[in-house]
């Protein structure tokens, strides 16, 4: 199992455990976590699963995928250098302990 900590905009932390191959988005949706909408279901057709990868993990999640940067332009909250679409971050054993921060709004 791979542990992911989601930190809501108000500072509330929620730890979820997923399997390698799950996306950060799919894990959150499957567990009913608020803060990730995922209107397109993970096909990178919206930016409602926007997250900020914690600074300590920024290098571990890899670069943005092709097209991800364009889609982030439609994000409802500020986009920073640590912004990612959570549907594009696949869990691996090396991401065990990953921390992502959720924006104030997704839509």
Task: Give your account of this protein's structure.
The chain is α+β, with helices and mostly antiparallel strands and 107 residues long. It is built from 2 helices and 5 strands; from the N terminus they run ββαβαββ. A 5-stranded mixed sheet has the order 2-1-5-3-4. β1 (2-7) and β2 (13-18) form a beta hairpin. The protein is globular, with a radius of gyration of 12 Å. The N and C termini lie far apart (30 Å). Residues 2-106 form the 2Fe-2S ferredoxin-type domain. InterPro entries: 2Fe-2S_ferredoxin-like_sf, 2Fe-2S_ferredoxin-type, Adrenodoxin-like, Adrenodoxin_Fe-S_BS, Beta-grasp_dom_sf.
Shape: globular
Secondary structure: number of strands: 5
Q: What does the average pLDDT come to? A: 96
Order of helices and strands: EEHEHEE
Structural category is alpha+beta
Helix run count: 2
Q: Gap between N and C termini, in Å?
A: 30 Å
Rg over CA atoms: 12 Å
Helix content: 10-25%
Q: State the major sheet.
A: 5 strands, mixed
State which percent range the strand residues make up. 15-25%
As laid out across the biggest beta sheet, the strand order is 2-1-5-3-4
The residue ranges in which pLDDT falls below 50 over 5 or more consecutive positions are none
Oligomer: single chain
């Amino acid at each position: 199992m791979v542990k992911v900590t989601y930190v809501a905009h108000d500072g509330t932390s929620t730890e979820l455990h997923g399997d390698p191959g799950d996306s950060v988005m799919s894990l959150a949706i499957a567990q009913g976590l608020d803060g990730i909408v995922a209107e397109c279901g993970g096909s990178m057709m919206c930016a409602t699963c926007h997250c900020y990868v914690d600074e300590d993990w920024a290098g571990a999640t890899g670069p943005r995928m092709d097209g991800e940067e364009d889609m982030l332009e439609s994000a409802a909250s500020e986009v920073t250098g640590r912004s990612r679409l959570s549907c594009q971050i696949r869990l691996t054993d090396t991401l065990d302990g990953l921390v992502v921060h959720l924006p104030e709004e997704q839509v």
